[in-house]
Fold this sequence. Notes:
Layout lengths: L1 E7 L5 H14 L8 E8 L14 E9 L2 E9 L2 H25 L6
Parallel strand pairs: 1-2
Antiparallel strand pairs: 2-3, 3-4
Helix pairs in contact: 1-2
Amino acid sequence: xxxxxxxxxxxxxxxxxxxxxxxxxxxxxxxxxxxxxxxxxxxxxxxxxxxxxxxxxxxxxxxxxxxxxxxxxxxxxxxxxxxxxxxxxxxxxxxxxxxxxxxxxxxxxx
Length: 110
């Protein structure tokens, strides 16, 4: 399995990279058919006019490629670790739904 982590307007620190790898390893430990994963971390430098600080400006996106399916999730938060956590929760729900659909449509040997 290949995990690609990129940063846009942001330096990906070893701590952030390790956090992502641990969460994805835990999430996909029961799934052997994952081809690749791409994670894109961005920081939007938009300034809120009222508080003079960025609000929800840390963005995390991920694409998981499976045979016959592609899962995508995006999350925003005030800090990067929270946005990564929200993104992985969304992907967990999608992976669970994908596994349930596979179990429903498994061919039965007659």
